[in-house]
Design brief:
DNA Polymerase III, Chain A, domain 2, about 40% strand, DNA-directed DNA polymerase activity, eight-stranded antiparallel β-sheet, DNA binding, DNA polymerase III subunit beta, EC 2.7.7.7
């Protein structure tokens, strides 16, 4: 193999592929990064059985060939190189990398032992990369980090006829984000390639058009794409595919059935409050300083205000009062893990937050609003941002002060 490639595409190529390298590989060869040179292009692949990346970049190929080298080492080397063209050559069991006055000799790994990467499934539509990154970030925060129940560590993607929905939960909170996407015309061919797909992908809006994938992996995968790109979405054979020119990513789906979450959202809320996000976040972080680990803060709503309270009379106590729109006849207290509330508020992307709840204040739904009054949406609280909803289960409130 002999390849010449500019620094910028080589740096991007290796960094993209290295994202799929296993931190604790089940086999030594899975620590390797596969490089393959063919006419006009250099391809880099990495795979850990759950997450696969195929990246390509234009290159001058003097001699085609393939090699498998230590992925982490190569990624570290690339970050240390000067911004000059790179030459790669192989000689038996070694690969020589030359960049300006820098040269490295890497020992190759047994390429024949490297597993075959899964086929990227056929596309069923496309979504804007920046929107997918935003949605994956908003929902990943509500996924469980304990792998006792693996399906709770995932984000469920539901491919509807008009919108793509991402949902996650750790049983104590739930995040839902809807974003626009472009389902494929069932009569059109897959835009990636000209040859037929090995299997017919499910149609958007059908019962099969859904995927449950690891939350953090989805976010990492979405971040590999340029923000202004359209990402093709592939579905089938237990895989989710993310596809753009020069980059294909596959994620293996998680086993297990996702919870039925639609009935958790109250159809007719009994109460509502609207608070400015920035001062509420500031108050929660300040009063939570006196809260012991895993103890809640209390939001005590009364006419025109909300008091954020932590602690109790026989311990440290903190209280901050800020303005709020709350016009119910009776005060209400919502007690919640402060980290859960901080996460939800931080994802709204709007200046005001609206909290709605049923009769017994379980659960509470948090949404974003653009204005505190009727100027934006024609009713108190303005028009809620229906694209993102964050639901949490309050804990039993202590009234000691």
């Amino acid at each position: 193999m002999k390849v010449e490639i500019e620094y910028a595409p080589f740096h991007e190529l290796i960094n993209r592929a290295a994202k799929a390298l296993a931190s604790r590989p089940a086999s030594p060869v899975l620590a390797g990064l596969s490089l393959r040179a063919e006419e006009g292009a250099l391809h880099a692949c990495a795979f850990d059985f759950e997450f696969a990346v195929r990246a390509s970049a234009s290159a001058t190929v003097g001699e085609p060939g393939s090699v498998l080298v230590s992925g982490r080492l190569l990624a570290d080397i690339v970050r240390a190189l000067p911004k000059l063209p790179v030459t790669l050559t192989t000689d038996g069991a070694r690969m020589l990398l030359v960049c300006g006055t820098y040269s490295y000799t890497l020992t190759s790994m047994p390429l024949k032992e490297y597993p075959s990467l899964p086929e990227t499934p056929g596309t069923i539509g496309s979504v804007h990369a920046a929107a997918l990154v935003s949605a994956a970030g908003q929902t990943a925060l509500a996924a469980d980090r304990d792998e006792t129940l693996p399906f709770l560590t995932g984000v469920r993607l539901e491919f509807g006829p008009e919108s793509l929905r991402l949902v996650s939960t750790d049983r104590y909170r739930l995040a839902v984000r809807d974003l626009p996407w472009h389902p494929s015309d069932p009569q059109s061919s897959d835009p990636r390639i000209s040859e037929p797909q090995p299997s017919e992908p499910p149609a958007a809006g059908s019962a099969e058009a859904a995927a449950l994938v690891p939350a953090r992996t989805l976010l990492d995968a979405a971040r590999l794409f340029e923000p202004d790109q359209q990402i093709g979405l592939g579905l089938g054979d237990g895989l989710l595919g993310l596809i753009s020119p020069g980059l294909e990513v596959t994620l293996r789906q998680l086993d297990g059935s996702f919870i039925r979450y639609a009935q958790l959202f109250p159809e007719h809320p009994a109460g509502r409050a609207v608070v400015e996000v920035a001062p509420l976040l500031e108050a929660i972080k300040a009063v939570a300083l006196v809260a012991e680990r895993n103890t809640p803060v209390r939001l005590e709503f009364a006419t025109g205000q909300v008091a954020v309270v932590a602690g109790s009379g026989d311990q440290a106590l903190a209280r901050a009062t800020i303005e709020a729109i709350y016009d119910a006849d009776e005060p209400v207290v919502i007690a919640v893990n402060p980290a859960y509330l901080i996460d939800g508020l931080g994802c709204l992307g709007t200046p005001y937050a609206q909290l709605t709840y049923p009769e017994k204040v379980r659960p509470v739904v948090l949404t974003g609003v653009a204005a505190p009054d009727g100027e934006a949406g024609g009713e108190a609280g303005g028009e809620p941002d229906a694209q993102f909803r964050y639901l949490f289960i309050p804990v039993r409130a202590s009234t000691q002060s």
